[in-house]
Write a structure and sequence with these properties.
alpha/beta, 6 helices, 40% helix, six-stranded mixed beta sheet, 6 strands
Length: 151
């Protein structure tokens, strides 16, 4: 018997089905900073998503892309063949708390935010993101070079 908060029932059901059927690990990725580094990473994902799924049983889905001014969200995945056009035409104002909540609401097994910025502003969100259950991946040196309390 397991007790689960109703707000987490979708994610729990997905995890149980995944384990029961030995299916792929599904990762909901939100990328912050679609500049030079972020754009390159998105291109690498575009080229490797099928390989990751087939050879490593990792189902990576890009569910959000955010810049300092706007964000693009998807409940299932963003088409990486034309994300720049879609980002330019159908994005909404950026709210990094809403960005995190969106990834959590996707009911996919592993929510991850990749911060490709060099921004102190974005790194200020890491603690709350991790406390909410979102994994954070970043080349951003700001967090590791600041005060020990922040680290």
């Amino acid at each position: 018997t397991v007790v689960i908060d109703s707000k987490d029932s979708g994610k729990a059901l997905e995890a149980v089905h995944s384990a029961f059927y030995l299916s792929d690990v599904t990762v909901a990725v939100g990328l912050v900073g679609p500049g030079l580094v972020g754009k390159t990473l998105l291109e690498q994902f575009r080229q490797q998503i099928a390989v990751l799924r087939k050879e490593r049983q990792i189902d990576v889905r890009i569910c959000g892309i955010a810049s300092s001014k706007k964000m693009l969200l998807s409940d299932s995945h963003i088409d990486l063949d034309n994300w720049e056009e879609t980002f330019g035409s159908t994005s909404q104002p950026c709210d990094l708390n809403e960005f995190k909540e969106h990834l959590l609401s996707c009911s996919l097994a592993v929510p991850v935010i990749i911060d490709c910025t060099a921004s102190d502003f974005v790194s200020d969100y890491y603690k709350s993101w991790m406390e909410s259950g979102v994994h954070v991946v970043t080349p951003n040196k700001k967090v590791n070079s600041g005060p020990l309390e922040r680290y």
